[in-house]
Amino acid sequence: MDPSLPEPEPLRALIQALRGLPGVGARSARRMAYHLLQHDPDGALRLGRALQDAVGQLRHCLRCNSFSQADLCPTCTHADRDQNLLCVVETPADQNMIEASHGYRGLYYVLMGRLAPLEGVGPDQLQFSRLLERATDGAVREVILATNFTAEGETTAHYLSDMLRARGLSVSRLARGVPSGGELEYVDAGTIAWALHERRPS
Ligand code: ZN
Predict the structure, then answer these.
(1) Which residues line ion ligand 1, judged by CB < 5 Å?
(2) Which of 37, 48, 56, 123 is in Cβ range 3.0-4.6 Å of 128 for a Cys bridge?
(3) pLDDT tens digits, one per residue of 137-188
(4) Is 46 exposed, middle or buried (0-12, 13-18, 19+ CB in 10 A)?
């Protein structure tokens, strides 16, 4: 793991930071660092500024919990969205996939994660109370659970279904055209549109 040559501290720190990204191991982190420093120093500076701006300027939308520059995001304040439908997804990437399917005109709630008891992620960490508050605003008539079809996504959907139905809400789950173990992020738009249309009561 340790390189045979001692690395200057700033280089070591950069590689270490890149290794923190999902799916990036020691070797690709080193390759990215060398590439940025040697072949694309302007791009490296742009990346640094973009990261600083994004972290500094983004917050969580007060209604849907997705990333937003303002208190409320453009989706939540859009006049044409169906206020009766609330679709619950794990991540903003999943929300983008559902938007891209053009099969949905309701609103969203983004969990920013999924239940993972072994990693210490429970209902409190995910602030399920905020979702409950959002879903019981009086306008929402159906909550569509669009968590991933992974073990953790299913566990999250079951938990939320019980929690929301106990409050008298109508709850549905995406149809299973999405393959088992499937993450929405990697499913094509047509399948997602179908899974939304064919959703089942949960
Ligand atoms: Zn929002």
Answers:
(1) 61, 63-64, 73, 76
(2) 123
(3) 999 999 999 999 999 999 999 999 999 999 999 999 998 866 666 678 778 8
(4) exposed
